[in-house]
Amino acid sequence: MTTLETPALKVRGLQKNYADFALHNIDLDLPTGQIMGLVGANGAGKSTIMRILIGLIKADQGSIEVRGYRVPDGQVAIKREVGYVSDDMRLYKAQTLRWHMDFIKSIYPDWDEAYAGQLLKRFDLRAHQVLRGFSHGQRVKALLLLILARRPKLLLLDEPTTGLDPVARIEVLEALAEVLRDEERSVLFSSHNTMDVEQLSDTITFLHQGRLVASQDKESFLSSWRRVVCQGQCHDALLERVRAMPEVASARNSGSIIELKVRDGGDIFQSRLQQLGLTITTVEPMNLEDIFVTSVRAGGSQ
Amino acid sequence: MNTHSLDFPMIKLLVLKDWHIYQKQLAAYVVGMLIGLTLVSVGKNWSFYLGALILLVLLICAGGFAIQSSVLNERKEHTLPFVMSLPVTPMDFYWSKLLANTVIYLVPFSLVVGGTVFLVLFTPLPDGLLVWSLLIYGFLAMTFCVSLCVALVVESEGWNIFVQIGLSTMVSPFIMGIGQIDAIAQNIKTANIVWSLPALGIFLAQAIVMLVALGITSWVQRRKTSFL
Asked: How many residue pairs bridge chain A and chain B with CB atoms within 8 Å of each other?
């Protein structure tokens, strides 16, 4: 029996090895009611993690619990409570959306026909149209309709906005934002589009080449990272001393101007820069994309 | 939930889904087979051979169509992640595909076998044709079963096509082969239905090949680590 206290996801030491790719000791925690954005470049391992969580791939090692059920033994119970959509998932193209809705309705007793009707209108989909005539955006919306109308407790969305035009992308994000108002519903949402993740997520996890680079709540991420620009007599020795500071993830210079990307660079850090003879001219927040790229380049350490 | 216990209501839903998706194309095969049976029943040499050829070709195609549509296309057209995200275990899915294909194939197969038995027994065609015809249909059922098993566990489309075409090309040698066995061939044009030892041995061998193929497939399926 799952309760509000049961975490939506609890992953410890997840490993999966392929000939040319591996997931290394992934730990993830997603409390119930939270939205986690999984950010990574193509090939980072986002889809592999999602597929392992839903039982489509077996992990080599690690303990995985989804809504309190262990994977893979509890996969049927998990699939009853979890809605999974991936960008490579397709519906039967010769059948209508209505046929798919009836098929899902026959499997899930919690199917909400009234809500399905609302989603049809919201997404501007025609139930009696065969899927062959749907655009990519319509197919994604049809998939989201099919999982949202059965009111899953956890959504696993693997790149749901990839390939969507701006209008369809906004529609999908708005629908998701509305769904996420339910405090009991949790979401793991993967994307390489950091803007989408920044918009929706409470917690953000960076993945790179099968490794977890950083995982933190969004506000901490955004508030702890800063771009600091300073000016001074720049020489190699000084630059090395700056780079050696634990807060500095990236340091570049152009003449007498040095641009730093720093984590937890508060007053003490700034006074240390001043002690080195540098004058701070700008301190500004970084966006998620910049934080992601900097974290990956720095090798990650959270 | 034990992953080895089967969810029969869910399997039934998946079988009905496959049946619904492929029933229209199946109806076209059935019409073609009725035409073949009609030609066989005319009683002329040319119509018998033409009808028999139509039945053989359509039966091979119907089996290949079922496998291609419901197993290989599920992977190729990426509907497999959708089905596997439903509350099923990989073994539920495996059994649903096995049953759905068997049901889809049994419709044309039963029609052709039943029609053949009826025509042989109740028309002037020699009754001795019965054992010979059933051996050929047994061989077709065996090739269907092996092709289906390969399709369920081998993801490569190339290998699947190779196996299907390879097995289909074995039909003619098989017909010629059983024609060389005196105990079978000498009764074809007579009014006697003779269940000779070689004929029974061939039926047994066909059944064993099917059971072994199913056993190996189930064993491989249980050990799979990816279900996409």
From this structure: 67
Q: Is the pLDDT of residue A200 over 70?
A: yes
Contact B36, B28 (CB under 8 A): no
Measuring CA to CA, how many Å separate A208 from each of A10, A26, A211, A296? 20, 11, 5, 7
Element (H, E) at A37: strand A35-39
Is the peptide bond between B173 and the residue preceding it cis, with omega within 30 degrees of 0? Answer: no
As a whole number of angstroms, the distance between CA A253 and CA A231 comes to: 9
Q: Compute the distance between CA of residue B200 and CA of residue A252 in angstroms, rounded to an integer.
A: 84
Answer whether A79 sits within 8 Å of B3, measured CB to CB.
Answer: no
Q: What is the pLDDT of residues B177-198, one digit of tens each?
A: 999 999 999 999 999 999 999 9
Residue A237 vs residue A12, higher pLDDT: A12
φ, ψ of residue A45 in degrees (nearest 5): 115, 10
Interface check for B226 against chain A (CB to CB < 8 A): the answer is yes
**The model's pTM:** 0.87
Average pLDDT, chain A: 89
What are the residues facing A16 on neighbouring strands?
A23
Q: Do A76 and B21 touch (CB under 8 A)?
A: no
Tell which A residues from 76 to 105 touch B, by Cβ distance under 8 Å.
Answer: 76-77, 79-80, 84, 86, 88-95, 99, 103
Alpha-carbon distance B121 to A93, whole Å? 45
Model confidence pLDDT, tens digit, residues A207-258: 999 999 888 888 888 888 999 999 888 788 888 888 889 889 989 888 889 9
Q: For residue B228, which residues of chain A lie inside 8 Å, CB to CB?
A: 51, 56-57
- Number of helices (H), then strands (E), belonging to chain B: the values are 10, 0
List of E strands, chain B: none
- pLDDT of A91 > 90? The answer is yes
For residue A206, the one-letter residue type is F
Asked whether the predicted pLDDT for residue B3 surpasses 70, the reply is: no
Chain B residues whose beta carbon lies within 8 Å of the beta carbon of residue A107: 10, 13, 86-87
Distance in angstroms (rounded) separating the CA atoms of residues B129 and B131? 6
Q: How high is the ipTM of this complex?
A: 0.87
Which residues from A are below 8 Å from B3, CB to CB?
A: 72-73, 75
